[in-house]
Amino acid sequence: MRDTTPLPPGATLAILCLIATVGLAGSFLYLPALPMMAESLNATEPAAQATLTAFLLGSCVGFALYGRAADHFGHRRAFTVAGVVFVSASLAAALTADITQLVAARLVQGAGSVAGIVTARATIRITLPPERAMQAMAMLTAVVSLSPAASPLIGAGVLQLADWRATFIVAAALGLAGILGGRLVLPRHVPVLAQDRPVQAEATILRNPQFRGALMIGMAANASFMVMMAATPFVFVDTFGYSPGAFAALIASILAAFAALALVSGRFAARLGAARPITWAIAPLLAGAALLVVATLGTPAPALIALGLLLLIGCMGLMVPNAHILMLEPFPAFAGTAAGLAMLITTASGALAITLYSAVAAGSVPGFGLFTACCGAATLIGWAALQRRGAIAR
Fold first, then answer.
1. Is 123 left (phi over 0), alpha (psi -120 to 50) or beta?
2. What are 351-386's pLDDT values in tens digits?
3. Nearest to 214 by CA among 373, 325, 340
4. I want to staple 338 with a disulfide (CB 3.0 to 4.6 A). Which of 177, 265, 331, 352 is the partner?
């Protein structure tokens, strides 16, 4: 029996990009409605932000279970089950009556959302040769980064026609489309027999210094990104008076810069190695972090804050896809487990960052600038670790 329906390589990559974006779409589609959702449910800003934290915590549970399950049962079967969980939780979120129910629904939605990103990355690592895998991973990262850019725009459009609950119905529809796409392209087989995998695969992965260095980059990048996504609706919409559409356009421009640099990095990584473009991002990233801090002190300047975010987050497009390549490179035999473990840890770092931000800096524009800049600058720790291991020099 054929493992998948034969499709052109471009169509297969397009479907992998689709299924990888479903989870992020579910997370960020409702961001423009976050303040009005809080008002509708009589919730405070930290309580409203807890819906995003709950999604991330649910994602951590999903990442802890999904990668190994996909390697054991096959990616197609595991993805279908997780997709059904995501769709069901999205519909439940649309029907919630209070903030506690919404937090619970978001927790379950997050657990189901992880399948696409893990499966897409593992499938690329399993099925493609190294040079094509680097370019495909860069394309996947670029498209995935555009998902949270496009999602607020879509959400803002939905809000012109309906209230915030409709954004979760749209997320459920995207989940159904992802399930259908996954049935077409995902491998059904288990890539490695159970007896050929390490008994403690996660410990084997974590002992690898290249994995740890690249993982630190992913953790810091995701922490800064998640704080930006959780805090900027209140900074720009509530404090600076931006409309939901203007806010969505700002986020889209920042993530479009990330996506463009991710595509560029894929072309260079195929010739120079995955680690080299990471070094190119260091100087502009630090410049963006410094500008973000300066622009939020005294009288905040929204245009300079936006420019700082553009530099800080945009330059991570040179880092993130190559960090994922470096994380999965040593583990072709159990790429699903490695991808799931990497995403578990990076997602946990994002959830922790939002929790700390809500506790110490929520409602403060200078606090937002300093906190986000510090998270972004922490990518230097991973870069330095890769340098010590010689990965940068390859």
1. alpha
2. 899 889 988 888 899 999 999 999 999 999 999 998
3. 325
4. 331
- Name residue 127's amino acid: T
Angle between helix axes 320-328 and 130-159 (nearest 10 degrees) is 130
Tokens describing residue 1? 């029996």
In the predicted structure, residue 41 carries a pLDDT above the cut 80 = yes
Looking at residue 133, its pLDDT comes to: 76
* Closest alpha carbon to 282 in 392, 368, 388, 143: 392
Q: What angle do CA 281, 287, 293 make, to 5 degrees?
A: 130
CB 335 within 8 A of CB 121: yes
Q: Residue 308 has which token pair?
A: 């700082």
| CB contact burial 175-199 (16+ within 10 A = b; e otherwise) | beebbebbbebbbeebbbeeeebee
DSSP class of residue 189?
Answer: S
List the one residue out of 307, 332, 313 whose CA is nearest residue 133: 332
Residue 210 corresponds to which tokens in the numbers above?
């290249």
Going along the chain from its start, the domains and CATH numbers come out as: 9-389 (1.20.1250.20)
CA distance 256 to 142: 8
Q: What six digits make up the tokens of 20? A: 């990888």
Q: At what angle do helices 209-232 and 335-360 cross, to 10 degrees?
A: 40
Q: How far apart are CA 57 and CA 246, in angstroms?
A: 29
CA trace torsion 207, 210, 215, 218 (10° rounding): -170
Give the integer Cα–Cα distance in Å for 3 and 14. Answer: 18
Nearest residue to 194 (alpha-carbon basis) of 340, 71, 38, 348: 71
Contact 139, 17 (CB under 8 A): yes
